[in-house]
Amino acid sequence: MGDVFVLAEHRQGELRDITLEMLTKASGIAEELGGETVAVLIGSGVDSFAEKIAGYSDKVLYVDDPLFSDYNSEKYQKVLAELIKQQNPELFMIGHTTQGVDLAPALAVELNMPFVTDVIDVEFVDGKPQPVRQYYQGKVNANFAFKGEPPYLITFREATVEAAEEPFKEGAVEKVESPLKEDIEYRRFVEYLEAEVGDVDITQSEVLIAVGRGVREEKNMALIEELAEAVKGDVCGSRAATDAGWIPADRQVGTSGKTVSPKLYIAVGISGAFQHLAGIKGANTIVAINRDPDAPIFTVADFAIIDDLFKVLPKMTEKLKELQG
Amino acid sequence: MKIFVCVKRVPDTSEAEVKVDSSGKDVDSSRFSFDINDADNYAVEEAVLIKEAKGGTVQVVCMGPADSDVMIRMALAKGGDSAMRIEDPRINDTDPLKVAKVLASAIKKQEYDLVLTGCMTNDDGSTAVGVALAEELGVPHAAMVKKLEVEDGKIKAHRELEGGLLEVVEITLPAVVTIQTGINEPRYAPIRGIRAAQKKELKVLKLEDIGLAEDEVGPESSLIELQKFYIPEVESTAEVIEGDPEEKAEIMATKLVKGGLL
Ligand SMILES: Cc1cc2nc3c(=O)[nH]c(=O)nc-3n(C[C@H](O)[C@H](O)[C@H](O)COP(=O)(O)OP(=O)(O)OC[C@H]3O[C@@H](n4cnc5c(N)ncnc54)[C@H](O)[C@@H]3O)c2cc1C
Ligand SMILES: Nc1ncnc2c1ncn2[C@@H]1O[C@H](COP(=O)(O)O)[C@@H](O)[C@H]1O
């Protein structure tokens, strides 16, 4: 009891950042609970990952089987359900990633586990873990208590903690037999399709003007283009801007888009959902223009213009042109 | 194809000040404007597109208050055939697994090939109800789907992963698919459709009508309990530019040029 389990995530031969982030976080939680951290790894030919994460956990349990050459939530669920029943962890952590959200809710239902998603922190009350999550796109926090007996299940948000830079443990690596003996028919992996490549690679841009839903209509993009021209920048945007068709899909910034690292990032009418913020961690200077003073984008901004973008932008472009001759 | 699509009415809080109410476990929503959840709007469109291509029916399912009826009628106007709305104060709607159980109970007594949900709600953001619903129904699922190809007895779902990578999976029907925004271009409801929608069936159901009891989906049955809501402390280190809009514009432009930020 008191053990904190973490599902290691990997894809296309690479360990995903969320894995070490969670193991770093889990180490602190396990200390509070008086238990150990256990990394669970499922895959095919993943010895090197097992070795790597042993440096970040007290123990690694891993299933290495050709049936797991590609991720399949239904197959993962079968392995994890067995493992959780056998090992009885106190807390089980899965990334709140496209992989985790495809898996964890079904696992929670199958095992009837107390379950909280998109957790950003874990607090302790009377020695019991209380997950913290957000509502209304980051405007409200909520604390939850687990009722009933462990194991408890959470999905943990990406990029909320920094992974330890150096290995800090020497975990024992233990291979476990896969409880799944045959392939399943009802869900089959077909292929990966890489994201389209467009004319401009925004990951290389020095100056980016990013647009969001606040721009309201396609015709208002003219204002943005003018600003971009004045600062010799490229135009990119939020998912809302991509969905609306104002910018091409390959110019979307955030978890399901690109991670950018410009010298200057000007966010116009973007609220700053965590999926967006994850993509601009590497930006040097962030200017945010938004008329909502509570918009989460201001938590990462260096300069805040709390105002109507339509009143600010024309003048700003004009002044920029004037100053630069 | 018999298709069900799950829709929720949510507040638009993108520009609203959000305040915790006196219970400490909810927010004061009296001044919010509400509409269909973003992703659900795309799910409705996808359901109607499949019906138009393959024939069949689209049934709209919603758990929520009577205020949701306007949104439900809009979905019917776009091509939905009928609707069920489940409303019962005994349901613990802060637990996504209970919401999933309620939706599953409403759906499972009927025939279905495909159930579509949004991938995430803008208010709760659990990103859990669709996949939990699949498990409750005992059918396969695919989450975060950005393209859907319907074949005979199965579908090819293009799941959108981090970085825009797509993972194509094939799942057998019946199945649950959670729809990601941007999968299609949601239509506006045609005037003719809006009139027709008023005559379509919209059943309002209580727990008993869907074969559930309070001890299955009420607060006592839940394995999690909301302790408190609070406004997070904002740790902003941003320099706030002051003045009227034109002054702000000039100050910022000057900082960019003179400060060597370009
Ligand atoms: C799995 C998943 C992956 C996702 N991946 C991404 C991703 O990669 N990138 C991404 O961006 N999002 C992503 N999202 C979506 C994300 O959750 C948000 O919905 C999205 O970022 C919101 O875009 P937005 O800020 O443009 O719009 P909104 O949140 O609607 O914000 C619009 C903002 O404009 C402001 N505004 C409105 N009018 C004006 C005006 N006149 N002047 C000034 N300000 C104004 C408002 O105050 C508001 O803050 C993802 C979601 C999911 C579920
Ligand atoms: N009260 C509800 N009524 C109908 N569908 C819902 C409800 N709550 C959630 N859903 C569906 O489940 C999806 C995911 O919701 P969530 O897990 O809360 O992020 C939504 O996009 C809806 O399609």
Structure write-up:
The complex is a heterodimer of chains A (325) and B (262). Chain A has 325 residues and is of the alpha/beta class. Chain A has two domains: 172 residues, Rossmann fold (3-Layer(aba) Sandwich); 122 residues, Rossmann fold (3-Layer(aba) Sandwich). In chain A, 25% of the residues lie in helices and 28% in strands. Chain A has a nine-stranded mixed beta sheet with strand order 9-8-7-10-6-1-4-5-11, sandwiched between helices. In chain A, strands 14-13-15-16-17 form a five-stranded parallel beta sheet. Chain A has a two-stranded antiparallel ribbon with strand order 2-3. In chain A, a hairpin with a 2-residue loop joins strand 7 and strand 8. The longest helix of chain A has 17 residues. In chain A, 53% of the residues are buried. Chain B is an alpha/beta fold and 262 residues long. Chain B has one domain: HUPs (Rossmann fold, 3-Layer(aba) Sandwich), CATH 3.40.50.620. Chain B has seven helices and 13 strands. In chain B, strands 9-8-7-10-6-1-4-5-11 form a nine-stranded mixed beta sheet, with helices on both faces. The longest helix of chain B is centred in the first third of the chain and has 17 residues. Chain B is globular. The N and C termini of chain B lie far apart (56 Å). The mean pLDDT of chain B is 97. At the A-B interface, helix 4, strand 7, strand 8, strand 9 and strand 12 of A face helix 3, helix 4, strand 7, strand 8 and strand 9 of B. Strand 12 of chain A pairs antiparallel with strand 9 of chain B. Bound molecules: flavin-adenine dinucleotide and adenosine monophosphate (AMP).
